[in-house]
């Protein structure tokens, strides 16, 4: 077994208990919420008998431990149970919506990585100059301004007034890539504003740290160009920090996508969970919570593995 | 400038940006490094040795330092005023440098071969494969065992002594005409120090390069150098061939260094046994900056900054009473 594969296996094994805890938490979240789901779902006018019927059909009258067991059974089957309102399994509802959210998160990350890393490196290299202070100001605005507010403003300006982008809707990539991009570009850019602000600040501080190191002077003493020093010698050292920041960003993008999908009426997972909450579709919300939790675990796993490829000092230890 | 001077520094003053404006760390440094010779530079911590050395390749951190005066000539060109692109050809090509701390001077995320071959690929246009095999040859040359395996490792797998050997391999990769070694052994164990010095001596002879050897350690200087420059508080205070300097030091500061060396008579003896300390660059001291620590201080010392005066061929001293007593009368 190569060290890389062994490392991946170890990390996967370490993730197992975390996944278990995440799934229990997803189950508990709704059970701990105030109010009786059966009463809410049965409606205002329901008779006690009707409420009991709903309770029974939801399985809420069974002992807690049995309910948990059924939840696990649904997970193992991979269908996550049936949605109460959508007339399909929770898994198939999520699978339908997932491409939208992944497209949004992927596109915004594709915008964020080059711009965030580029701006951060630029600011670090020209530390203390007007370039540095402009980048830092832009970054500060990016992380401080709430995205729902920018999103509303952007829709008003670019979609309604100027008509450059559709104000809502989604076209699958397979159906028409150009329309897909047109539908997602504005929401992705808005999601990116925060990400760029965050990533450029992290990159700047990581790069500043590296620029002060002795080996940068060694590189300069060899006659290496400034560009190569920044892009090879410095950036490779800042990479661990950039990977960490990217992992945090991806996790934050889950929350960000809920807001953005709402504003732009994109039929993604974030929209699904909001719909689920409004409709008291408990199995659906549980399923999405679980997927969100698993996504966090997966992101951390990838970040962990990426470290060991970015830094030879942690590679085989 | 003598005909055989490889690098010629004249009237060099380098200043650093501080809270109180620009402060001179070294002032009026003039020295020649001749082709193939070994110039020793000695002085206590803070005397300006590293600042001088780094100025030759303009390696001070960007935006922190400026050369307020002077010139550094190489092949009829002033390195202080050369465009960045020309200077990059000199760095690692004509002039290379080995630094004090081998633990932090190598890039932790690049392989040894990559770091050695980088300047070869840059200056001599070698391919990646050629660079790697040349890197292995160089590792052999600096006496690292099992070179092909070491070439593909990362610095954290090597000991301090081995890393300094790698630094030396990097420096000599393009056969520089001048190697600047800034306290190359200070951070190492005593036994390793001796090995590294021996390696440097052999390489110098083999490659015929000039070496600027900077050290705290008069023992190192005595063994290694042909000519010695003694620095104190940012200035050259004495300059002489090694034999003359050790047998007949003229500056009270040099005498103090010798006494501290002879007094203990231990190889590897550090300087600093003279009472008092080196003043900071921004401390204002009237006249001779060694005055507050000097046992021979007179009124004339405080009246004006002593000039560096030639008291005999190849022997310069910056001490007013001494040079008045010793300088040839015809001046
Ligand atoms: N980047 C810098 N900014 C401000 N002052 C500096 C800087 N580098 C050096 N100096 C000052 O210049 C003076 C000379 O420093 P230098 O490093 O040349 O001493 P040195 O002789 O090499 O000493 P050591 O033996 O400790 O290496 C010191 O007083 C130091 O404080
Ligand atoms: S000039 Fe005066 S104070 Fe300075 S070293 Fe000479 S004797 Fe001492
Ligand atoms: Mg130094």
UniProtKB/TrEMBL annotation, chain A:
Residues 98-307 form the ABC transmembrane type-1 domain. It comes from the Bacteria. It is a multi-pass membrane protein. It is found in: Cell membrane. Pfam families: BPD_transp_1, BPD_transp_1_N. GO terms for cellular component: plasma membrane. InterPro entries: BPD_transp_1_N (IPR045621), MetI-like (IPR000515), MetI-like_sf (IPR035906). CDD domains: TM_PBP2. GO terms for molecular function: dipeptide transmembrane transporter activity. The chain crosses the membrane at residues 12-33, 104-126, 138-165, 180-199, 238-264, 284-307. Keywords: Cell membrane, Membrane, Transmembrane, Transmembrane helix, Transport. Its main location: membrane. Belongs to the binding-protein-dependent transport system permease family. This is ABC transporter permease. It comes from Acidisoma cellulosilyticum. The lineage of its organism: Bacteria, Pseudomonadati, Pseudomonadota, Alphaproteobacteria, Acetobacterales.
